[in-house]
């Protein structure tokens, strides 16, 4: 009996590459240049299919920019240029863009092969919650939608190649179990390409992984999920991506960086598992005929050089070697990476700033902000060696320490140590003379019977410092980084015109308990003397003698719990009290109740403050950016 060796073509092997590009909203030509380079790199690795992220061409999120017709038309021109400039590539490429069809705009995925746009598929599930506003400007795709963009098919499509059928979808389409994946798989698709622009949020990684594995298992298919990377405005996209085959994760791509990851998939395995799964086959039969339009392609990528993908460790029965991080390391590294990427991309993409300035108080928030800026510079120039990194730090970073009579020797030592340790040039500029002059001037503005309050005296100091930072920014075109945290911002423990000032707020959506946690982690991993000096002293604004933040407010764990319960879980103050008693059983009940009342009052009365704050990086499912996660009226009463 003669045995013939099966070729890659006979075995239906395909190599799928997830390409992660860092785009800028509106930079249509530059974005496509990056996409072309990414596709070429992936094809050099033998890719059969290349998946680029959602809105690769126009950037994400485009918000009301899509109302400019010229912007949308430019995306179509760039899609055509992408097709022309990749026509020599063998791979099929999926790329995201906005298209206009009739009176509607659609967030769409296009499939391109050998110079031809094979079809365009619109997104169906348009998120209009949290940080997303797509339903405000975009139209929904839907089952059976059929149309054309010139001579390019548009609508509810799947694409048939010699190796099998491919479906396209966009980000949120996969987050709903009732998305288009099911009907397209019932129509014959075995590979679903999900083009995504999913912002980083703490804890999102495992959620995505579980969701993609579940969709892949539910639909007995291969799901290839490619995510956008980079910062745009306050959103940070962490990139990465996943390939799952029939519920099993094949690739979990590196995050927070451009590049591509690829895997070879045996589609015969997907077919075999579909045949074995009687539940899936029963559901397919019960679904009846679908309205999905199948586009037959006359071209297909070559697959002769693909080889069968061995299991991890070359064993079908033993687990492969896996490097795992502790939950603490993963949490801290992800959050620090997200914050440094968001700051760095804002700094670079605006094109307005040659350097970054941080006003060091000797306290925790400003210390963390400078560490994040330092991390950005180190990562940016990591390949160029220690001396070049040190030179770039000295060129880009600026630190300022502006002490008053209330500043302690400890915070002065911590500020000086921080700048020296990180290599950032430090300027010490005392503010007492300016403070005294301002006190005299303000007293002259008061009427008989009016007096300069203790709180006003504190705020004068913060405003003098802010004015100096803005003047520095004006003089040097520097990026003035605001350093307030979420906890203090939520209750108005901030100064309008003072520490709420800046061009970008790096940690404004990071609670104080997390600030402390990150600094503890950095102390453990770096042994930083600057951090040790900072953490020795209780958190304090040092705007008055013997001032401590937790004495002015409440213990930060309690404050952060109040914020999460009231603003996140939407509890009323009475419910917050009940929850606090369960969370802090050793605390005095009367004190906890008083803290809850205090929080409810201060939070409502401080909304007018935090809506004036600068743009902030979004790194959680809850933040205080009025145009993002938590939209509250400024004028309100909590009588309810």
Question: Care to describe what's here?
Answer:
By secondary structure, the protein is α/β, with parallel strands linked by helices. It folds into two domains: 13-300, Carbon-nitrogen hydrolase (Nitrilase/N-carbamoyl-D-aminoacid amidohydrolase), CATH 3.60.110.10; 327-549, HUPs (Rossmann fold), CATH 3.40.50. The protein is 41% helix and 19% strand. The protein contains 21 helices and 22 strands. The strands form five sheets. The chain has a seven-stranded mixed sheet. α15 links the parallel β21 and β22. α19 (556-568) crosses α20 (573-583). The radius of gyration is 28 Å and the shape is elongated.
Lay out the secondary structure.
Layout: E1 13-20, H1 28-44, E2 49-51, H2 69-85, E3 92-101, E4 104-113, E5 116-122, H3 134-137, E6 146-149, E7 152-155, E8 157-161, E9 164-170, H4 172-175, H5 181-186, E10 189-196, H6 204-218, E11 222-227, E12 229-232, E13 235-238, E14 241-245, E15 248-252, E16 259-266, H7 267-276, H8 278-287, E17 293-296, H9 327-350, E18 356-360, H10 364-380, H11 386-396, E19 397-401, H12 409-422, E20 426-428, H13 432-445, H14 454-476, E21 479-482, H15 486-490, E22 504-505, H16 512-526, H17 529-536, H18 549-552, H19 556-568, H20 573-583, H21 589-610
Short description:
With 640 residues, the protein is α/β, with parallel strands linked by helices. Helix content is 41%, strand content 19%.
């Amino acid at each position: 009996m003669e045995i013939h060796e099966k070729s890659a073509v006979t075995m239906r092997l395909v190599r799928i590459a997830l390409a992660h590009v860092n785009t800028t909203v509106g930079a249509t030509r530059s974005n496509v240049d990056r996409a072309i380079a990414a596709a070429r790199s992936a094809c050099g690795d033998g890719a059969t299919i290349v998946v680029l992220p959602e809105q690769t061409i126009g950037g994400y999120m485009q918000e009301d920019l899509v109302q400019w017709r010229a912007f949308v038309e430019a995306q179509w021109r760039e899609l055509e240029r992408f097709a022309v400039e990749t026509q020599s590539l063998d791979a099929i490429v999926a790329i995201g863009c906005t298209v206009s069809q009739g009176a509607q705009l659609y967030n769409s995925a296009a499939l391109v092969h050998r110079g031809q746009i094979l079809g365009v598929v619109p997104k169906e599930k348009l998120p209009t919650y949290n940080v997303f506003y797509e339903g405000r400007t975009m139209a929904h795709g839907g089952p059976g939608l059929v149309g054309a963009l010139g001579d390019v098919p548009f609508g509810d499509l799947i694409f048939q190649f010699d190796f099998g059928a491919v479906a396209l979808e966009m980000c949120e389409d996969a987050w709903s179990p009732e998305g288009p994946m099911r009907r397209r798989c019932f129509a014959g698709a075995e590979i679903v390409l999900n083009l995504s622009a999913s912002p980083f949020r703490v804890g999102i990684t495992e959620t995505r992984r579980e969701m993609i594995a579940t969709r892949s298992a539910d639909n007995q298919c291969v799901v290839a999920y490619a995510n956008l990377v980079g910062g745009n405005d306050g959103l940070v996209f962490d990139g990465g991506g996943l390939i799952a085959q029939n519920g099993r994760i094949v690739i979990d791509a590196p995050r927070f960086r451009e590049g591509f990851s690829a895997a070879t998939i045996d589609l015969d395995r997907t077919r075999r598992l579909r045949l074995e799964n009687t539940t899936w086959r029963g559901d397919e039969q019960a679904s009846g005929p679908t309205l999905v339009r199948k586009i037959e392609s006359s071209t297909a990528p070559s697959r002769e050089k693909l080889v069968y993908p061995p299991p991890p460790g070359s064993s079908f029965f033993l687990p492969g070697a896996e490097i795992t991080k502790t939950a603490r390391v993963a949490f801290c590294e992800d959050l620090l990476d997200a914050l440094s990427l968001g700051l760095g991309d804002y700094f670079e993409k605006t094109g307005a700033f040659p350097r970054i300035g941080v006003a060091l108080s000797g306290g925790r928030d400003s210390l963390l902000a400078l560490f994040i800026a330092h991390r950005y510079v180190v990562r940016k120039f990591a390949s160029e060696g220690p001396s070049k990194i040190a030179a770039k730090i000295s060129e880009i970073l600026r630190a300022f320490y502006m002490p008053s009579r209330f500043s302690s020797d400890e915070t002065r030592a911590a500020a000086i140590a921080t700048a020296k340790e990180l290599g950032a040039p430090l300027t010490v500029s005392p503010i007492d003379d300016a403070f005294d002059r301002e006190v005299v001037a303000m007293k002259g503005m008061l009427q008989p019977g009016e007096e300069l309050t203790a709180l006003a005296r504190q705020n004068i100091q913060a405003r003098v410092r802010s004015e100096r930072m803005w003047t520095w920014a004006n003089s040097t075109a520097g990026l003035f980084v605001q350093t307030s945290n979420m906890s203090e911002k939520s209750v108005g423990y901030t100064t309008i015109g003072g520490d709420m000032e800046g061009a970008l707020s790096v940690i404004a959506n990071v609670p104080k308990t997390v600030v402390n946690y990150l600094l503890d982690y950095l102390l453990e991993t770096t042994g930083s003397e600057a951090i040790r000096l900072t953490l020795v002293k209780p958190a304090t604004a040092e705007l008055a003698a013997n001032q401590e933040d937790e004495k002015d407010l409440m213990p930060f764990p309690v404050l952060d719990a109040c914020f999460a319960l009231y603003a996140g879980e939407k509890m009323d103050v009475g419910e917050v009290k009940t929850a606090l008693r369960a969370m802090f059983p050793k605390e005095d009940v009367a004190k906890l109740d008083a803290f809850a009342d205090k929080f409810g009052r201060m939070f409502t009365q401080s909304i007018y403050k935090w809506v004036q704050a600068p743009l902030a990086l979004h790194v959680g499912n809850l933040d205080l950016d009025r145009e993002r996660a938590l939209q509250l009226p400024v004028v309100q009463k909590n009588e309810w």
